[in-house]
Write a structure and sequence with these properties.
By secondary structure, the chain is mostly helical. Helix content is 37%, strand content 6%. The chain folds into 2 domains: 69 residues, no CATH class; 55 residues. Strands 1-3-2 form a 3-stranded antiparallel beta sheet. Helix 3 crosses helix 4. The protein is elongated, with a radius of gyration of 26 Å. It starts with 26 loop residues before the first helix and ends in a 17-residue tail after the last helix.
Length: 142
């Protein structure tokens, strides 16, 4: 796993990295084998023999579980926001413009998008007031 580039290292120190699998009886053996494979590959590529900064070991089952999880959170556009808030799209735009409404994580051409968790947290504290009744529900409406 690359943690920085020579042009933009995280802590000012250049690094290089790789991710790969090895067969081993346990984590200690896996780390030892991985270290040897990594050092041979770095030498073959002509990379400097820097000390290891980080090593991770996980079972195949843990890797499968990790790969099965989405790599980004559930997102909501205005249509989904309106459904979640149980309002019209027009009203969703108005609510999204409130100063206490969470900011979108991205703005696409069609719509801004929010994380479902940020909208959920807003709904937990939103002092929602009853809206206008539908036109056909008002007395005297036909």
């Amino acid at each position: 796993m690359v943690t920085g580039t020579p042009e933009e290292p995280i802590d000012g120190r250049a690094r290089y990295g790789a991710g790969f699998s090895v067969q081993a009886a346990d984590a200690v053996e896996a780390v030892a084998r991985a270290r040897a494979v990594f050092q041979r590959a770095a030498a073959a590529a002509g990379l400097p023999a820097w000390p290891l900064a980080r090593v991770e070991a996980q079972t195949e089952q843990e890797l499968e579980l990790e790969l099965a999880r989405p790599s980004f959170p559930p997102l909501l556009g205005v249509a989904e926001l309106a459904e979640r808030l149980e309002v019209s799209r027009q009203r969703a735009w108005t609510i999204a413009g409130r100063p206490d409404f969470p900011g979108p994580v991205a703005r696409l051409k069609a719509t801004p998008v929010w994380t479902a968790d940020s909208v959920r947290r807003f709904l937990e504290i939103w002092p929602r007031k009853a809206g206008r009744p539908l036109a056909n529900a008002r007395p005297g409406a036909s």
